[in-house]
């Protein structure tokens, strides 16, 4: 079953990545590679999409838009390849498998200098129609649209026309901002148009892309401090269903999910029993002034343990269990180094959780752990997307992801090796040693 939300990401002149041809993403995509090889940079491109389209409301008092916040988090003027002189353009392209054809969002950012803000040099949304020319939903800031600050948007000649391909034409839009994504602010741009929204084919794909961005969740194990999770006492009453990037709302999410789905409570306790066999029940309970805490009941003990008494690794595994076994999953889950602080004996379980969740949503995992990578070897036989980030033409300055094929490692796998084994010994087929 396909759960794809984002099928491809491409970039030009972006930091140390060589990604002009793009990288295909699957239901489950795994990144490996040395530190500094661009894995986090690629993840940041996905986070930029989320923050630029579905970020918090612009702060008028600061004079800062969500796009400007997203660019700052992406790296500001440092997003430009360090071997390129500014001014220069950084291109970013996202493909979404909407309906039968990919819909492509293309953004070109103009990096001027350290003393001038990064602005949008061009932006377009198109649909691949299997022809030389794609269908253009909108195009802004380029010659076709009338230059900087202007744009064109496709409008049906007659929305009621029967048939699969109603004819359309371009209508001009003006005062297109250079510091906000047109996809984000398009309703505002069309407020004074002389055509109705029903005549604009843009609204369907725009809603779908915004939904993907709004329900994408990014986790880094380095940001999830077990001590903070243990000591946190979130307040009852918030509707949180997804674990926050820091994990401090764990008790609240657990409480809310248990209230919504009794089967989830049963399944989570079975999962925790796989981790700690003496587990009888894990539950979130009120403590004091409507605060929440987590109790952990075990066989042979009449009183529960509290989360603050559990080990770091146990807290982390409970967190990943809540993320990956939730009855309601985000559209996209990105996890950086989920193995951090986890005992190797638990890696098969963690990998299995990730693979099972990828049958219900799209998951991207970045890892340095050969113990975890071992348990993704079977993905090569099912067409899995496992990429190793390595230097371009043996250059130490630029990196690109290479997809690992079953054929490239088949000889070793037939001898009983796993991917993690090859990673441990620095096999050239999966990147070799980073020095």
Structural class: alpha+beta
What general form does the structure show? Answer: globular
| Mean pLDDT rating | 91
What oligomeric state best describes the polypeptide chains here? Answer: single chain
What does this structure look like?
It contains twelve helices and 17 strands. It is an alpha+beta fold and 435 residues long. The protein has a domain at 226-329. Strand 6 (119-127) and strand 7 form a beta hairpin. Helix 6 packs across helix 7 (262-275), helix 7 packs antiparallel against helix 8 (312-325) and helix 8 (312-325) packs parallel to helix 9 (347-357). The mean pLDDT is 91.
Question: Which SSEs are present, and which pair or pack?
Answer:
Blueprint: E1 8-12, E2 19-24, E3 28-33, H1 39-54, H2 66-74, E4 88-96, E5 103-111, E6 119-127, E7 135-140, E8 150-156, E9 168-174, H3 182-189, H4 203-214, E10 216-220, H5 226-231, H6 250-260, H7 262-275, E11 279-287, E12 291-298, E13 305-306, H8 312-325, E14 332-336, H9 347-357, E15 362-366, H10 370-373, E16 385-391, E17 399-403, H11 406-414, H12 419-424
Helix pairs in contact: 1-2, 1-4, 6-7, 7-8, 8-9
